[in-house]
């Protein structure tokens, strides 16, 4: 068994923040309920990825996180499983609106996140709806009306649906900004800021980004409260 320091060194993890908990280097250490552990074993995963190992215990403490890691590092389950745990603690009536909101830059990524949420959340009876542009609103609105614990959305489409007053974000208490740098590159900053204004300030916010330029630092400083920063590998500015 590696110490926290040795594990971080081996996987090029650096953390910044107060009393950062040690990484959870095996699934058994996570304390996740058996139905979630069954899903990860069924998927053939043998251990958490470094970003999961380090960000899970922080997210489970309900703290804000900025995680900087390149693609393919397992970030999706890094935020989804703590989101499932959050839902187990405080699930609202899905008819009132989602409890978990994930913003993602593209339709393709948003549907991948939804697929992962459905696959790993099924046994916990978690419902998930996806909202993205370039497709008719009708079917998305219809699905939304059935209620969803988790909404995964691109900022443009979610903002349109907010303006139509067909969704309420008043129940959201776990907000994820995935691929934040890409969303900003695509010009979504105004939409993101409008959306976040509709989310209660009393929430947990997690931001994931592959790079850490000053625009991303600025929005992180505005939207997150005393976040723990987790870097995996070298960070491009
Ligand atoms: P990222 O968002 O960082 O680009 P993803 O979350 O899309 O990465 O994960 C990349 C791939 O790794 C996915 O196919 C995912 O199912 C898989 N994966 C996630 N966690 C693990 C794990 N602990 N062990 C093995 N594979 C994993
Ligand atoms: Mg991803």
TrEMBL record:
Give the DEAD-box RNA helicase Q domain ranges. 25-53
Motif Q motif: where in chain = 25-53
Q: Where is the Helicase ATP-binding domain?
A: 56-230
What is the protein name stated in its UniProt record? RNA helicase
**Native species:** Hevea brasiliensis
Task: Provide the organism lineage as a comma list.
Answer: Eukaryota, Viridiplantae, Streptophyta, Embryophyta, Tracheophyta
Tell which residues of the whole protein are contained here. 142 to 378 of 835
